[in-house]
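To whoever is on call:

I kicked off a structure prediction for a single chain this morning and the downstream step that reads the tokens threw a length-mismatch warning. I double-checked the sequence; it's 101 residues and nothing unusual in it as far as I can see. Pasting both halves so you can look.
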Amino acid sequence: MQLKNETFLKKIRHHLLNKYTFVFLIFFVYLTFFDDHNLIKRYKTAQEIKKLESEYQFYLDEIKKNKDNIHKIRDDSVFLEKFAREKYYMKKDNEDVFILK
């Protein structure tokens, strides 16, 4: 058993000390940490892009809802009155408004 472990370690050592493997490891470390466009920065940038895309979609949905509200307000006077009362706390002259939170 001891002999098999020693031969296995020799094989691993031979491959790790191989000049191509050594150059590849140095290149990988360089790309991961030291390059201007390293893998860490690329990962953070990808996360930020995902966040911005979700914000973009949220604002597109908000724009669509607001456009629908504008069309309803222009066409329907009942909706206009309801919208003004709920959002801007408007009232008729002979009314009192109580705001409960």
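Update from on-call: the warning came from a stale cache, not from the record. Cleared it. Sanity check on the structure: The first helix runs from residue 2 to 16.
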